[in-house]
Every structure is written in C-alpha cells, then in structure tokens.
Amino acid sequence: MTHSARYVIVWTILGAAWTAVASAQAPAPAPGTAAAPVAQAPGPQTPAPPPGPGPAAALPVVIGPPAPVPAAVAIPRPTPDELAQVNATMRRLIASDTSATRPLLEKFAPLLQLQPARMNVATTYTQTVQRRGPRHEGFVEIARRGNIDLLLDGDSITDWWVQNDANKAVFEKYFGGIRTANFAIAGDTTQGLLWGLKNGEGQGFQPKAIMLMIGTNNQGNTGPEIAEGVGAVVQELRTDFPDAKILLLAIFPRSTPNDPVREKLAEANRIIARLDDRRHVFFLDIGPKFLDGAGNLLPDTFRPDNLHPIAKGYEIWGEAVKDSLAELLK
Question: Which helix H or strand E contains 234, and what residues bound it?
Fold first, then answer.
C-alpha cells in the first residue's frame, strides 16, 4: 500500500471521529465542579428571574452526574484503546513519510491526534439557576398532589403559554379541558430539566401524555450534544413515567434563515427524530408551520427576538398538536 493510500485511510478514520465528537475535544468540567458559564449558555432566552435575594441565588452551578443516553442518539466516542491505536498509526505514518510534506506533518502532529471526548454537560443531572427556589418547589408540590393527565415540559417557549391574557386564552382553548401541569421554566436547558425530573418533578404522579420541547438554550453545545441531552430527558421521562406517551417536538426554528444557530438546532432535530418508536415516543416537527416560503418566521407569530411565540404563534402550535395529544391521551 502506498503512503498516499495509507494517509487516506487514516484521515478518513480521523475525519469521521472528529465529526462525531465535533467541538467535544476541549477540556470540560468534571462532575461536582463549579462551571456556571458552561452550564448556562449566554443569551439564548430571557432567563427566569432568580429565586429571590439571598445566598441560594448566588451559588455557582455545579455540574452533576451523567444521565443515561439512548443508543439512538448517542455520539460515537472512541475508547482509550481505539484512541491509542489510531494515534499510534498516525505517528508511524508520519515517521515513515518520505515526501516533502513530512516537516509539516511533524509540525502539526499534535493536531492530527485524536483527543478524548469531553463530557457532554447537556446529559448531566445539573441543578441550574432556573430549577432553584420557589418554582421548582412549587412543581414538586404539584407533582406530589397528582391528578395530572398531561405534563408540559421545556423552557420559556412552553413556560410562556400562560404569560399574558392573550396567551392564556389560547392555552385555555386547547388545554382547558385537560388536567395539565406545566413544569417548563424560562431559560432552562436539558441538564436543568433532567435535574428537576430526578428531584421531585418526576415523582408522585403518572400522566397519560407528555409534550416535551427542550434544547434551544443549550447554545454552548453542538447539535449532536443537544440531541444527546434531549435523548437523556426522554430516557428519564420513560423511567419516571413508563406508561406515558411522549409527544417529542422538534426544537422550534429561531432567528433567520442561514443563521448557524438555526442549522445547529435543525441538526439536533434530525438526530432526535430517531427516538420515535411509535409506541412510547412520537416525534413531531411543526416548525415549518411557523415559516414562510423563504424560511422567515410568519408575521405576528413571534416576538421581535425571533424566538418566543406570541398568541398567534401559540394558536398555530395548539392547532398543530391537538389531534396528536387527543390520541395520546386516550
């Protein structure tokens, strides 16, 4: 085999591995370490107000232990043995190279080495700022009382269904006749939702159906990492509520066409669609209903931030899911 052919093979292996762990090779905080900037991605949504003055509001976010991730959305990560094999092969190829490129290969050899993948914070049980204080405690009390047929969970996009009179009217139209609990919190992430479910929000009741959308706030993560986080939430819901049917919504489009953030979320959506088993998990992408032919959000459906629906947007959402929810609630 020629040197060029051998390089092609190794570069193919490295390229596939680097793609699978995109942006996952930088060091990451270990469980139990304070890392508020990592756990709370800046600026994706207007965060929920802190739980009031006092020490609890100022405590750093501590990364929690990892949650299980369904195989359907798990990122392939090389084992230590696989890392050693690939890197040893690359070193041998560089050492045996006789071309004029060898000095460059030697200069950039560290960049040609596979690195251990970083921890995906999106798949950890991490108590975010949003899941501290009265709101979380209120959810736990609601869960303890039970009598919930439909659970809504996620971030501000779900939380703000009942933020003002116009939104409340739409909520009442589609959910007024259903015993519904909304445990979504503005600004939260997959890791915060995981923690909430593990710490009282997922115990004490057994809903018939769940509508879940989460992930737009995980902007410190890649698309595949967000998908892993969503998958971990779905797995936790399946553990806590084994008889419930989960309507897993694709993360809504945000911003404008060609914005990298929108493409990242679209990538995550393509991956989480694999979680649909038509038995317990039902994936539904209603994002296109909010867009015109050019991919822009329809007029008067979202706030100027191009992220949060207003009453007309919630009307589109309610109409798009009502039949699916009716079926899942049977």
Answer: helix 223-240
E-strand ranges in 102-243 read: 150-154, 180-182, 209-213
Q: What is the pLDDT of residue 27?
A: 37
pLDDT tens digits, residue range 100-115?
999 999 999 999 999 9
**Per-residue b or e along 4-32, where b marks 16 or more CB atoms closer than 10 Å to that residue's CB:** eebbeebeebbeebeeebeebeeebbeee
Q: Domains along the chain? A: 123-328 (3.40.50.1110)
Nearest alpha-carbon partner for 139 in 128, 129, 151: 151
> What order do you get walking across the sheet with 209-213 strand by strand?
180-182, 150-154, 209-213, 245-249, 281-284
Mean pLDDT of 9-20: 44
Q: What is the mean pLDDT of the chain?
A: 87
Q: CA separation (Å) from 301 to 170, 292, 312?
A: 13, 11, 5
What mean pLDDT do residues 145-160 have? 98
When pLDDT is averaged across residues 274-301 and rounded to a whole number, the result is: 97
**Residue 38 clears pLDDT 50, i.e. is over it:** no
Sign of the CA dihedral running 184, 190, 192, 193: positive
3-state secondary structure of 151: strand
| Residue tagged 């508020």 (tokens) | 36
End-to-end CA distance of the chain: 63
- Do 284 and 318 touch, CB atoms closer than 8 A? no
Question: Phi and psi (nearest 5°) for 212?
Answer: -125, 130
